Amino acid sequence: MMAGKVFFSVSMSLDGYVAPVPAPVDNLFAKESQDHPEVRRWMAQWMALQQWIFPLRFFRENLGFGDGGEEGVANDIARATFERTGVTVMGRRMFDLGEQSWPEDAPFHTPVFVVTHRRRDPWERPGGTTFHFVTDGIESALDQARAAAGDRDVRIGGGGETILQYLNAGLVDEFTIALSPVFFGAGTRLFDGVDTSRVELRQIRSEPSERVTHLTYAVHRRQ
Amino acid sequence: MMAGKVFFSVSMSLDGYVAPVPAPVDNLFAKESQDHPEVRRWMAQWMALQQWIFPLRFFRENLGFGDGGEEGVANDIARATFERTGVTVMGRRMFDLGEQSWPEDAPFHTPVFVVTHRRRDPWERPGGTTFHFVTDGIESALDQARAAAGDRDVRIGGGGETILQYLNAGLVDEFTIALSPVFFGAGTRLFDGVDTSRVELRQIRSEPSERVTHLTYAVHRRQ
Questions:
Q1: Distance of alpha carbon A97 from the chain centroid
Q2: Per the count of CB atoms within 10 A, which of A120, A159, A192, B171 is most buried?
Q3: Could you read off the pLDDT of A42-66 as tens digits, one per residue?
Q4: Using a CB-CB distance cutoff of 8 angstroms, which residues of chain A are in contact with residue B16?
Q5: Is the link from the previous residue into B159 a cis peptide, with omega within 30 of 0?
Q6: What value of ipTM does the predicted structure carry?
Q7: Among partner residues B16, B185, B217, which is closest to A181 by beta-carbon distance?
């Protein structure tokens, strides 16, 4: 059996950010947060970064928004990324944010392994998503993810810090950046802290779509 | 007469850098500098960033290295960038570095306006390059550049700080990034300090070549 690849796929601003500066509220998505100027700023930046995804047919289907939406290169890429993914691994902060915002029928439809310090029983959602909480580190989470993914690929879902941990540990085979034509000016930079003495890249694919460019790199460990 | 556009075109690392951390020597290119480990580090990073340019047929021709070299997308882009450029504007630091390294027959073959605080008579080089030193600011340098460029375009040559000044002043129409699959980890980041409240982008072209992706954006001033 061919083992799958380990990859990540994120949207990045042209100045290198994958997330805005956090807004100072407990729950971004709570009704009382919506008028907070920092929540509005967070939402506006997040929407600008991800604006290429929301109109896609695949995105609408996958979240159960019904028919319609754009087809084309970006849609094909979004669908292929979903289909190759047998399991997603994510950090605790991404999970906490998602827990506030994902619909009940969470958009993964596969096992998800959450790297955390907090023990918790598996959390099964309708539609095939089950969250498993792993408290013994990123390598253990990846081992469990590989076993569950079979011959499909393991996606390191995020956030930025978790991706960087896997990248610097030499555990990522390739990644795709959807480079968005926006500037954040501040926030979480994906590649701050990358171990430049160990990580070496080769551009393997570069596909423009309507709003962004999808850049794919193979990762090699420098000897 | 159609006025030309104002643009810049630089190579950027995937983590956003356009120049390495400076090496602590007066002249990077002096013989006695070559064994300094920080000079070696600077050179290695610079070469990695620009590695897509050196093998090109156009690059070799333009520096008088003779025949040969690669043709293809990257070569066509490098040639077209040269041909559209009626005048280059650059900052004082880029000039100082170039003065140490350009061949006598400097590679611009057009007027070059250097933004500086240091008065100096025009400096004419063989092959059509004349450096003019402008001491009354970036707008004056651009006005003079536009007048000299006629219907061709004005290139803001660099370095990063000078490009950012023009970008934030709303004086750049479009730009192209050759995104290189390398990480610097430190250095001069092109878009640190970009005025996100004023600068808005639209992706207008995205072309992969063998080693890098050439990303072109139109710049709009946010109202």
A1: 12
A2: A159
A3: 999 999 999 999 999 999 998 888 8
A4: 15-16, 189, 191
A5: yes
A6: 0.92
A7: B217
